[in-house]
């Protein structure tokens, strides 16, 4: 990060024009180079002796998620039980980082995980489209926070961002963070709709400057969702942001990560690009519903030498 960039950060939000100049002054992304670098990192293998550690780490980073119109209190309680004890037959199996639910289910989830270290995350701000007035988006956030959410996952207005109304998006994030109270804020970009890698980099910096605790790829409702190249760019951004400001911001790829093999690729990439400080559920998460079962199956295979059937673990 250049000295010029560091000095610009102090007044980057002074006006829409200043913010626009800063975001468009970020280095352009070499798409071919980014794709090749991500593919190279994704092809690396880890030693068998490290694989169990990696599987346990990945489990501890999962935000176990249910975001369906047919969600019921019973389904949410079952999800919370699984988050606390992913493998009931093995008490050494780590718990997941969080359960992620709609705002109206926060109270049920909070009660279910009470006394455990599992966090409750709530999607808010007219998830997944983000198409609502700021008043509605903020009230959505306040309700989830008041119900006890530890984390709020907001969505940006992609239409505003793509139209170049950066200060509007910035002010939304600032306002939502304030409405979160003590809850941590994850900002979802819906990278599948941002169209270019340059936009992913710009959105990352905009969200971090506005106070995001985490930047997140996707809602899981739009394809493509999380990909290695897009996450690679976001991990680069948080690394550079810490270099410029001294502040760490987390990263959460979400949607489409279904296998333990893929999860390990992400962990290798994070270690190589940002460093081991991010290999912690406080700074890296997986937004997933189906990933956890494959992690558990691979973990059991390493312990017993045989695969469990697909119905050995609960299906979410």
Main traits of this protein?
47% helix; alpha/beta; TIM Barrel; 316 residues; 8 strands
Description:
The protein has 316 residues and is of the alpha/beta class. It contains 13 helices and eight strands. Strand 5 (184-188), helix 10 and strand 6 (214-216) form a beta-alpha-beta unit. The longest helix has 18 residues, at 228-245. It comes from Micropruina glycogenica. Pathway: Carbohydrate degradation; 2-deoxy-D-ribose 1-phosphate degradation; D-glyceraldehyde 3-phosphate and acetaldehyde from 2-deoxy-alpha-D-ribose 1-phosphate: step 2/2.
Topology:
Layout: H1 3-8, H2 16-24, H3 31-42, H4 48-60, E1 62-65, H5 73-84, E2 98-102, H6 106-112, E3 119-123, H7 134-146, E4 151-155, H8 158-162, H9 166-179, E5 184-188, H10 197-209, E6 214-216, H11 228-245, E7 250-252, H12 260-273, E8 286-288, H13 291-304
Parallel strand pairs: 1-2, 1-8, 2-3, 3-4, 4-5, 5-6, 6-7
Structural class: alpha/beta
- Reading the helices and strands in chain order gives HHHHEHEHEHEHHEHEHEHEH
Q: Sheet with the most strands?
A: 8 strands, parallel
CATH uppermost class: Alpha Beta
User: Roughly what percent helix?
Assistant: 40-55%
Quickly count the helices: 13
**Could you state the CATH homologous superfamily?**
Aldolase class I
TL;DR?
The protein has 316 residues and is an alpha/beta fold.
């Amino acid at each position: 990060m250049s000295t010029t960039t560091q000095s610009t950060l102090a007044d980057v939000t002074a006006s829409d024009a200043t913010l626009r100049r800063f975001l468009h002054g970020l280095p352009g992304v070499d798409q071919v180079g980014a794709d090749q670098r991500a593919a190279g990192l994704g092809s690396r293998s880890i030693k068998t002796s490290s694989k169990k550690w990696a599987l346990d780490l990945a489990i501890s980073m999962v935000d176990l998620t249910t975001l369906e119109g047919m969600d019921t209190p019973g389904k949410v309680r079952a999800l919370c039980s699984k988050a606390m004890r992913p493998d009931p037959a093995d008490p050494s199996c780590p718990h997941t980082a969080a359960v992620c639910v709609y705002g109206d289910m926060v109270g049920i989830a909070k009660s279910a995980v009470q006394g455990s270290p599992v966090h409750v995350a709530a999607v808010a701000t007219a998830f997944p489209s983000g198409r609502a007035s700021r008043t509605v988006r903020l009230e959505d956030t306040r309700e989830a926070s008041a119900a006890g959410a530890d984390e709020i996952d907001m969505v940006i207005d992609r239409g505003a961002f793509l139209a170049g109304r950066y200060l509007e998006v910035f002010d939304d994030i600032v306002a939502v963070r304030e409405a979160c109270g003590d809850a941590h804020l994850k900002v979802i970009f819906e990278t599948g709709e941002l169209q270019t890698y340059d936009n992913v980099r710009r959105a990352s910096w905009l969200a971090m400057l506005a106070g995001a605790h985490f930047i997140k790829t996707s809602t899981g409702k739009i394809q493509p969702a999380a990909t290695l190249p897009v996450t690679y760019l976001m991990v680069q951004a948080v690394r550079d942001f810490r270099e410029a400001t001294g502040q760490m911001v987390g990263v959460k790829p979400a949607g489409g990560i279904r296998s333990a093999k893929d999860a390990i690729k992400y962990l290798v990439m994070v270690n190589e690009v940002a460093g081991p400080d991010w290999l912690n559920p406080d700074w890296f998460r997986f937004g997933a519903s189906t990933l956890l079962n494959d992690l558990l199956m691979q973990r059991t295979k390493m312990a017993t030498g045989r695969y469990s059937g697909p119905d050995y673990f609960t299906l979410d």
